[in-house]
Task: structure prediction
Amino acid sequence: MALTISSPAFAAGGAIPAEYTCDGADRSPPLAWTGAPDGTTAFALIVDDPDAPDPAAPKRVWVHWLLYNLPPTATGLTEGVAVLPAGTREGRNDWSKTGYGGPCPPIGRHRYFFKLYALDAALPDLNTPTKAQLEAAMAGHVLASAEVIGTYQKAGRR
Result:
């Protein structure tokens, strides 16, 4: 069985409800995953938006959430997760904070990638890494990966 990730809050490729964005409560959506390969010791989660600032002329990938060392027994995260699973560490998003920062696109409909990685080793304490630092630490340790994409556009924005 292949590694999969999904959210009961939105369909793959569908719109992310406003409650999970800066227009709502800005809490993380619920996530669920299955199919961790044998040898999985930890998971990492990267949530980012490759369409920033404008999908018609993207200039950068905006990082919304970084988690690593989620335990191999984890099968998801609850909506608005307040207490992360034991051992989980957080990275720094592009607001220079830890934690989830929901979609808040200045213009257009953006895509948000929720990317899950099954790792063959727990990573050392990376002291709130950036996405680039986390990806460098994961290199050579990824057993499998999966993603689910949601979209969001602010009401009244084109």
About this structure: The chain has one domain: 4-81+91-119+131-152. Residues 131-138 form the longest helix (8 residues).
